[in-house]
Specification:
The chain has 17 helices and no strands. The protein is mainly alpha-helical.
Amino acid sequence: MKKICHYISEYLGVLVLLAAVLALVFPEVTRQVSPKVINYLLGLVMFGMGLTLNLHDFKVVFSRPKDVICGCLAQFTVMPLLAWLLARLFSLDDALALGVALVGCCPGGTASNVITYLSKGDLALSVGMTSVSTLLAPLLTPLLTWLLAGHRVNVDVMSMFLSILWVVILPIVIGFLVKHFLPKFTHEAVDYLPAFSSLAIAAIVAIVIGANAEKLLVGGLTIVVVVMLHNLCGLSIGYAIGRLLRLSRPKRKAISIEVGMQNSGLASSLATLHFAAYPMATIPGAIFSVWHNISGAIVARVYSRKL
């Protein structure tokens, strides 16, 4: 069983891509599932993240505050600004522009820690940045979304704030407490968590893609290009910022990956919960989930090579 779980988590990119393709070919299957399930699946992923956290992960915040602050500033400035720029450059409609903005305003994704490890980057910095950006998300994600998309659509900042608390922060806290009070259970469960998280992410992608399959097949090329550029520019600018600050190469890798890889599942969840009038707003998050796992595998291979 552990071996199967290992393969599932190791080939996350392939799994998510397969889920997206199947949802496009057989959309009627995923349409049987309520979109609200996305929130429970994301909560499961965040619970798994909580089970893997410990107080040592936050040590980097206090021992190297400059690195974490620089990384988080880059996270919440580069990706939102890129989202705004790409939406204007490609003249995206309100729904897609909103979806791209949501992706840009979300915190770093949990997969970024794995990619940083494979890239031989600064893993402690990566985990610290993911943790801090996730904790800042209830405040910054709604505010930044309002700044970027509030002139196009109605953005309820307080409602989004509460949603992120319930869907992201609460499961992480519960996971953290379970790890503290039930260490034996956590020790046994931790080997299976990456696989369950991978399956949950694949399911989120399938539900979102299936719900909008026809529209995506007709006019999906533009948004695919936008999502790819968003991710690749984030990775490149993140690395450039680290270089500009004269950080070591492992730190540059960590910041690059943290900036470029977003919690796109959260973007799709927020679009489903708060912007039902714009169903296509869920699409950028789903496409990002597929693409950034593919680009992450490529980046890990490139970064791990010695110059």
